[in-house]
Amino acid sequence: MQSHPEETFRMVKKEADSCTDSCYTGHLQSTLQEPIEVSSSNKDHSHDIGDIDDQSIEDSSKQLVLYDPAANRAGQIEHVPQPTQYQHPFGRYSDPNVPSRVLPSVGAFTIQCAKCFKWRLIPTKKKYEELREHILEEPFFCETARAWRPDISCDDPADITQDGSRLWAIDKPNIAQPPPGWQRLLRIRGEGSTKFADVYYQSPSGKRLRSMVEVQKYLTEHPEYMTCGVTLSQFSFQIPKPLQENYVRKRRAPNISFI
DNA sequence: GCCACCGGTGGC
DNA sequence: GCCACCGGTGGC
Hints:
GO cellular component, one term: histone deacetylase complex
GO molecular function: DNA binding; zinc ion binding
Organism: Salix koriyanagi
Order of helices and strands: EHEEHEEEEHHE
InterPro entries: DNA-bd_dom_sf, Methyl_CpG_DNA-bd, Znf_CW
Helix content: 10-25%
Domain MBD: 168-242
Structural class: alpha+beta
Strand order of the largest sheet: 1-4-8
């Protein structure tokens, strides 16, 4: 895969007690992770991903975590468990009678320390987005987490590890924070989809936009945003990449027909 | 009728 | 192979 920094994030469900809203974890070489929006839209953040629509799948199979390939190479992070070890995001946890429409959602945001390579949970999506925006120029260290955990250091155990119980994904670094009042939403698709996830931006008025083309058009039609300084550079539709191989279905080879 | 979600594809 | 974009539609 690529050799430059990438982010992965995983969705974490509960378990991350410190995470009050959806969080992802991720890191880049130095680390970063991005927040991903998890679960159903209108839910508040009082629960994280976990409670997606129905009962929750308490397990962590939906956690999304970010990781850094560079660190992987260094052997700091164990490799992704075999696919078979991963549970299908839905399925096994859901009641067979419940049509499982439960999609994985981001349970936690994590970023890897650039020094000790331990994963640190980022308490909020907002914080995660702030850190991600400049992760390349300003690497994350355990000390960075002192802003919300005064005594944390590299000597403390990792907040989370890649143990195969969660879905991890690598986030992209240096994605701009959304403009004030806007939200960047990440929806994870179900396993076997043709795409891992979708990014949407939601304007302050609630309008959802799903591509740069739509953003451009919307801004043109609502010049007040541009007047306030909103620009296209504040938008990015880059999606994280799942660590689990084959989470995304490959494009099928065309059928060969013969006579 | 709306829209969240998924599939497909053109262009690179 | 990846990704940006957008059409279609099932479920509400």
